[in-house]
Amino acid sequence: EASGDHLLNDTTITHIIDIVKEKGTDAWWDLPVEDLLPPSYRNDGRRWKKGADTMDVWFDSGCSWASVLRARNISIPADIYLEGSDQHRGWFQSSLLTSICATGKAPYKTVVTHGFVLDEKGMKMAKSVGNVIPPSLITNGGKDLKRHPAYGVDVLRMFVANSDYT
Question: What is the CA radius of gyration of the chain?
Fold first, then answer.
């Protein structure tokens, strides 16, 4: 902590990868520093602290083509990327840049952008505002199934397919 030294090497990276594989990416935020350190660094007489810097908010989603497509044995490029128009400088661009750097080609053949779902007041629905309806509420229903019945994925697909986003 006091020295400002960074602890980044094959041992620490491998240890963090193993933790993330087991516990997910929230482990970085949920676990104490001691649990994030490989055993050989836990009692080395130094105090370490977690970094909270964000390298790039779009980097992880921009690399999703590599894990999602490859994990499902889908050839690159994907046929289509579909997302809101706010992603032109976000997911679409970061995916394009990371894929070109890694493979020399775009991760998608076609990009389709659409508008936004509006709430009852005509405001764009956003998680940050808290006015979204989770897709799982439509597909699976809520705790009170009389108030929020389960409609299944086909109803959600039909809604999306019939939405005019031009």
Answer: 21
Distance CA 2, CA 7 (A): 13
CA distance 62 to 51: 22
**Tokens coding 105:** 């080609």
Residues 106 and 98 sit within 8 Å (Cβ to Cβ): no
Q: Which of 69, 56, 54 is nearest to 99 (CA)?
A: 69
- Burial (CB count within 10 angstroms: exposed 0-12, middle 13-18, buried 19+), residue 65: buried
pLDDT for res 55: 62
pTM above 0.85? no
Q: How do residues 17-71 score in pLDDT, each as one tens digit?
A: 999 999 988 898 899 988 999 998 887 767 788 887 666 667 878 888 888 888 8
Answer yes or no: is pLDDT of 9 > 70: yes
Give dist(CA 135, CA 147) in Å, integer. Answer: 16
* Token pair for 133: 């309806």
**Contact criterion met (CB below 8 Å) for 129 and 120:** no
